[in-house]
């Protein structure tokens, strides 16, 4: 067997900072002549090809993470990782790496400990600081080497940062940059690129404040244009000065605020576009740059929020009908970006931000904007609305309930949202999906607050079902007036699927509101028309809607389903699907299986009485035969009231063996049997576990004595009665005064050849989880119940203790079984 300890996956980091899987293989270490050193080798487990050949370099920082991962940088912007299947293999390779690097294997990173002698460390601590070479053209190479050598050591990095900061070195470097650019000194420009990049990695806020100042930032960007790895310099400054335009939709009077906006845009540009993608080890070195941008955004939001005149003008122009479309578009985009910036705020500051917007009238403004024809403006307004709903859905609910007292239903904010969802022109309905998510958040009781007098849930749901639900369900009702959907194109089907998804959510989370709506508007009948759609996803949505309703086990819903024969379209869909084994087939069978397992009596009777003829031939699952069995059990209980007299007897003498492990459905029978005794149900269900004869003999002997005259009649019935339809075989248990039986006897082939395929006793003839049916053994003039059919040993023990010979038609291990 292959050694799994050394089994690894090889990953490389791409330009998007995502790990690419290069393959799976087995890693080893050994001396490679070509590389002149100990190397890591990974050979593919599929074909033995070489996935990785990497020399272990003592100067490379290897890092062990999470016990099974080793990460390192092979070259600039080329990071590698080995992910081990087992920790032991990772530890072995890590020891080899540490051995070559001269490190203790207990460390997690080979370069984390500064590799300095005590004397050098003492010199560093006692020396006042790092001495920088003079800022001259001919010393740029020395400076670049000094910066590169200082970055791996935290102590030297700190001293270098202090030296650069104290001597005003950045401004001198930028003067040299202008000279080099004028002289077209490419070598000097390449050194300056490395120096400035290194200064970024020093991660010092004080240095960033100098570099990002108004007079320095463009020269810093200029230095970063001359990457030595590129054949031609980039043109970032040209883009920032000529292409990128600052749009001041509302005049900003505060010069400090304007300067802060410019600075943030440029620094963000440096981070995203100018700086090379940081390696795994450099990411943490840029944390201060991330923080610089973050706090700038916080400051901008705070300054705009405090400028009441600015926000007043903004909302006034947004809602003014005289505002030109282009201008309004810019205003909405500004507000959208403003809200996006607010996501960087701390919770308490974000509270204040949205309260300010609410007081300025953002929701009425959005209502006006959403009523406009411009698709782009409406899209931006939807994004703003999503920020508000995600932050505080209660605020939105309160607004729409207040406006319903003054406005017609057509212009309510929520109805505008629903209409935009319905009228989405995108073929993929991207906007509709977003709006449906917002509606779902608004109608979700989980995020509704309870007040002292009334709950928000009661108030809002009453409002929603009165004013909005008819708008949401209109496309569904319009498309289901006939037996088939009137429009069955892909886009319409997608929209109806979204509406059904929300209605299904309402069925699960709302109580009497959705129940009244479904029953009064006959919604389920309309929904089931969609099972005839050519689009399987829509038909499945309709089935899921009905399944959620049945899953509630609510008799109001059940009576509604039976009164309107709403299983009919489901059965039609099942039959039209034919023998295809697909999601439609499985979903419908699961629905009927749920009714059977949960023993929903009213639906069981309804299904068997109305649809048995259509379903009786389905024998590749036992679901429908099980439903018929449930139904016949119910009928037998109703037709045999004398069974009631045996309840207390059998309840008191039920016997269960200690060492027996019951399967789930068997356990369910014991549980439900006890409870159902009080509901007028039968005491001996066919799938109840068999009791030993001695346990049952005394309590029922007198009862059975009175049946001696019926024995001959019982044997005749057992011999002659056949299977009704294709129902699974079982034995008939007949009682005095009974003319009906829920169980029919097995065909002769079952008793003659118990091991034949498909016979009751053969493996695979029924589900393993199906409880066995009651079998009857005749002994003299008494009828006894056979114990567990799959328990051979205990069955034999019972026979020995009994001491009487029994003539069973089948061995104990092959008793007839019936899936109930």
Rough outline: flat
Percent of residues in helices: 40-55%
Supply the helix-strand structural class: alpha+beta
Q: What is the residue-mean pLDDT, rounded to a whole number?
A: 76
Strand order of the largest sheet: 4-3-2-1-7-6-5
How many helical elements? 36
Brief characterization of the structure:
The chain is an alpha+beta fold.
Identify the notable features of this structure and list them briefly:
820 residues, alpha+beta, 7-stranded antiparallel β-sheet, two-stranded antiparallel ribbon, 36 helices, 9 strands, 54% helix, 7% strand
Descriptive notes:
By secondary structure, this protein is of the alpha+beta class. The chain is 54% helix and 7% strand. The strands form two sheets. It has a seven-stranded antiparallel β-sheet, with helices on one face. A hairpin with a 5-residue loop joins strand 1 (7-13) and strand 2. Helix 19 packs parallel to helix 22 (490-509) and helix 21 (469-478) packs across helix 22. The radius of gyration is 40 Å and the shape is flat. It starts with 6 loop residues before the first strand and ends in an 18-residue tail after the last helix.
């Amino acid at each position: 067997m292959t050694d799994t300890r050394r089994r690894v996956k090889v990953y490389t980091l791409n330009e998007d900072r995502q790990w690419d899987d290069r393959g799976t293989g087995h890693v080893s270490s050994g001396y490679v002549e070509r590389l002149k050193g100990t190397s890591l080798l990974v050979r593919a487990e599929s074909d033995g090809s070489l996935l990785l050949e990497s020399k272990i370099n003592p100067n490379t920082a290897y890092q062990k993470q999470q016990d099974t991962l080793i990460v390192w940088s092979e070259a600039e912007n080329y990071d590698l990782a080995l992910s081990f299947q087992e920790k032991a293999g990772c530890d072995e390779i890590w020891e080899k790496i540490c051995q070559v690097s001269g490190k203790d294997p207990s460390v997690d990173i080979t370069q984390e400990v500064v590799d300095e002698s005590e004397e050098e460390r003492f010199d560093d601590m006692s020396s006042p600081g790092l001495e920088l070479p003079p800022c001259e053209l001919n010393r740029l190479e020395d400076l670049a080497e000094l910066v590169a050598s200082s970055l791996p050591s935290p102590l030297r990095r700190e001293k270098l940062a202090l030296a650069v900061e104290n001597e005003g070195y950045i401004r001198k470097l930028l003067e040299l940059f202008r000279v080099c650019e004028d002289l077209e000194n490419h070598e000097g420009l390449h050194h300056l690129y490395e120096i400035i990049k290194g200064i970024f990695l020093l991660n010092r806020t004080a240095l960033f404040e100098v570099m990002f100042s108004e007079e320095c930032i463009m020269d810093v960007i200029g230095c970063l244009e001359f990457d030595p790895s590129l054949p031609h310099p980039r043109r970032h400054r040209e883009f920032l000065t000529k292409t990128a335009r600052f749009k001041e939709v509302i005049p900003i009077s505060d010069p400090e605020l304007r300067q802060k906006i410019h600075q943030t845009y440029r620094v963000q540009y440096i981070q995203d576009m100018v700086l090379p993608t940081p390696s795994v080890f450099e990411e943490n070195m840029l944390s201060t740059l991330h923080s610089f941008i973050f706090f700038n955004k916080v400051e901008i939001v705070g300054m705009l929020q405090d400028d009441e005149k600015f926000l007043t003008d903004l909302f006034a122009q947004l809602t003014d009908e005289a505002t030109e479309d282009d201008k309004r578009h810019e205003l909405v985009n500004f507000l959208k970006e403003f809200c996006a910036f607010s996501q960087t705020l701390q919770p308490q500051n974000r509270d204040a931000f949205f309260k300010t917007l609410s007081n300025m009238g953002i929701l009425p403004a959005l209502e006006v904007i959403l009523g406009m024809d411009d698709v782009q403006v409406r899209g931006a307004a939807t994004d703003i609305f999503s920020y508000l709903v995600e932050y505080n859905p209660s605020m939105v609910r309160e607004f729409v309930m207040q406006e319903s007292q003054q406005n017609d239903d057509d212009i309510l904010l929520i109805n505008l949202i629903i209409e935009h969802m319905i009228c989405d022109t995108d073929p993929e309905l991207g906007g509709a999906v977003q709006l449906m998510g917002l509606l779902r958040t608004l109608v979700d009781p989980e995020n509704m607050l309870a007040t002292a007098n009334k709950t928000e849930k009661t108030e809002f749901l009453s409002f929603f079902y009165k004013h909005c639900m008819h708008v949401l369900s209109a496309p569904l009702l319009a498309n289901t007036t006939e037996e088939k959907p009137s429009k069955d194109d892909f886009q319409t089907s997608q929209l109806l699927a979204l509406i059904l998804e929300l209605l299904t959510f309402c069925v699960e989370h709302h109580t009497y509101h959705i129940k009244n709506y479904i029953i009064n508007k006959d919604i389920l009948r309309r929904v089931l028309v969609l099972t005839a759609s050519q689009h399987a996803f829509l038909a499945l949505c309709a089935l899921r809607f009905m399944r959620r309703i049945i899953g509630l086990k609510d008799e109001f819903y059940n009576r509604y389903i039976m009164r309107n024969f709403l299983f009919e379209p489901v059965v039609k869909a099942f039959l039209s699907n034919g023998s295809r084994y697909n999601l439609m087939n499985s979903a419908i069978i699961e629905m009927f299986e749920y009714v059977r397992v949960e023993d929903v009596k009213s639906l069981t009777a309804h299904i068997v009485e109305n649809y048995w003829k259509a379903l009786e031939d389905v024998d590749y699952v036992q679901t429908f035969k099980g439903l018929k069995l449930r139904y016949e059990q119910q009928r037998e209980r109703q037709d045999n009231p004398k069974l009631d007299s045996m309840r207390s007897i059998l309840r008191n003498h039920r016997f269960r063996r200690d060492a027996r492990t019951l399967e789930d459905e068997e356990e369910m029978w014991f549980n439900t049997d006890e409870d159902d005794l009080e509901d007028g149900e039968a005491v001996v269900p066919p799938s109840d576990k068999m009791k030993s004869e001695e346990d049952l003999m005394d309590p029922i002997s007198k009862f059975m004595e009175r049946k001696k005259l019926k024995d001959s009649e019982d044997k005749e019935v057992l011999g002659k009665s056949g299977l009704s339809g294709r129902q699974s075989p079982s034995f008939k248990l007949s009682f005095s005064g009974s003319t009906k039986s829920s169980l029919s006897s097995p065909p002769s082939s079952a008793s003659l050849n118990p091991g034949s395929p498909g016979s009751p006793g053969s493996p695979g003839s029924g589900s393993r989880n199906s409880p066995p049916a009651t079998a009857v053994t005749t002994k003299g003039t008494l009828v006894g119940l056979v114990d567990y059919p799959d328990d051979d040993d205990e069955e034999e023990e019972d026979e020995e203790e009994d001491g009487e010979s029994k003539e069973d038609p089948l061995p104990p291990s092959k008793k007839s079984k019936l899936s109930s």
